[in-house]
TrEMBL record:
GO terms for cellular component: membrane. It comes from Algoriphagus formosus. It comes from the Bacteria. The chain crosses the membrane at residues 12-34, 46-66, 78-98, 129-148. This is Histidine kinase. It holds the Pfam family His_kinase. Residues 169-246 form the Signal transduction histidine kinase internal region domain. Keywords: Kinase, Membrane, Transferase, Transmembrane, Transmembrane helix. GO terms for molecular function: phosphorelay sensor kinase activity. InterPro entries: Bact_2-comp_sensor_kinase, HATPase_C_sf, Sig_transdc_His_kin_internal.
Length: 360
């Protein structure tokens, strides 16, 4: 709203200055070229100049707000050209009629050529050409201004639609991420209930704390990076409860010191991917999670072993959903401010994710 008001005020100022400059040209510069200090111009001259200014203002705004929007922008080009030419003829004869009404030709002849007889049929060609030029300038400027304003309005409308589209898409992506996260976590807790009730209760308490984060922070556009790191720690601790000694965890998480903000739950899919596809009940494995903070730049890295997954299992069907959603969220929220690489290692034994994120 403030931007629109500022733009409106600037437009009014530009229009006012433009018409003031026109008045200066018609009221001062032209008379000065006629040695105004030596010749007393008749009052009819000033009446005509005022009439020209009023006529040009009417032509300017009629063309800008009526003819261009209703004719030219409706693809009626030939009709518009016909109206412009017809308007030029009408403008010319209107000026001539006004001159005759106030006896402008006679008074100007008496001022500049008092010793010669007056010929009412003779006109000053250069004066008519100057008036025609003023008409064309008024039409040209008003048409250009109307087209620029139309382009600006279309661009603002397009940007607003793009913002709404991105907002809707981000809401959709978040809606996909949340059920995905809870589905995996509840599966883990369900497994614990058959092994250790106490651990299952502890897991429920941690899940409750994480749910509060999801319910309150995930509804915001951004959250503190420190809260996101705490959420990651809770998630890892929850995952530890179901791991065996065959899984080695290598966790390195820097503690945020500044009040940087980040999109909530942005890093969760990378962790989910590690714990879902990087552990085995039979073979030894390791998971590496590293988060470094250097100024306003976050470096996040995960590495995990690759184990075959049953193609009929829900995990196989959901494989990659979180990563694809996160990649899309990054492109929408941090365009040009992130670098993401993920894939298999050269020996196809590990899956890695490297994310560099600028939080400026």
């Amino acid at each position: 709203m403030a931007i629109n008001n500022s733009r409106k005020n600037l437009s009014i100022l530009i229009h006012t200055l433009g018409w003031v400059m026109l008045c200066v040209v018609l009221m001062l510069l032209s008379p000065l070229s006629w040695r105004m200090g030596e010749i007393d111009l008749p009052v009819e001259y000033w009446w005509k100049q005022v009439f020209l200014v009023i006529s040009l203002i009417a032509i300017f705004y009629a063309n800008q707000f009526l003819i261009v929007p209703r004719i030219l922008l409706k693809s009626k080009t030939y009709i518009y050209l016909f109206l412009v030419l017809g308007g030029g003829v009408l403008f010319y004869y209107t000026v001539v009629t006004f001159e005759q009404l106030i006896q402008y030709p006679l008074r100007m002849h008496e001022t500049f050529n008092p010793d010669r007889p007056f010929d009412p049929g003779r006109r000053w060609i250069y004066g008519d050409m100057f008036q025609a030029m003023l008409y064309l300038v008024s039409i040209g400027l008003s048409t250009s201004l109307a087209l620029v304003q139309k382009w600006q309005n279309d661009e603002e409308h397009r940007q607003e639609l793009e913002k709404q589209r991105i907002k809707t898409e981000l809401s959709y992506l978040k809606a996909q991420i949340n059920p995905h996260f809870f589905f995996n976590t509840l599966n883990n807790i369900y497994s614990l209930t058959n092994l250790d009730i106490k651990k299952a209760q502890e897991a429920l308490l941690k899940l409750s704390r994480m749910m509060r984060y999801v319910l309150y922070e995930n509804q915001k556009e951004t959250t503190l990076l420190s809260k996101e790191v705490d959420f990651i720690r809770d998630y890892i601790e929850l995952m530890k409860m179901r791991l065996t000694d065959k899984v080695k965890l290598h966790i390195q998480l820097d503690e945020p010191t500044d009040n940087h903000t980040i999109s909530p739950m942005l890093l969760l899919p990378f962790l989910e991917n590690c714990f879902k596809h990087g552990i085995s009940s039979q073979a030894e494995s390791s998971i590496h999670v590293k988060l470094e903070i250097m100024g306003k730049t976050v470096f996040f890295e995960t590495r995990n072993h690759i184990f075959p997954v049953n193609t009929e299992s829900p995990e196989a069907k959901e494989h990659g959903i979180g990563l694809v959603n996160t990649q899309r969220r990054l492109s929408l929220l941090y365009p040009g401010k992130h670098r993401l690489k993920f894939g298999k290692s050269d020996d196809n034994q590990e899956y890695y994710v490297n994310l560099t994120l600028n939080l400026e």
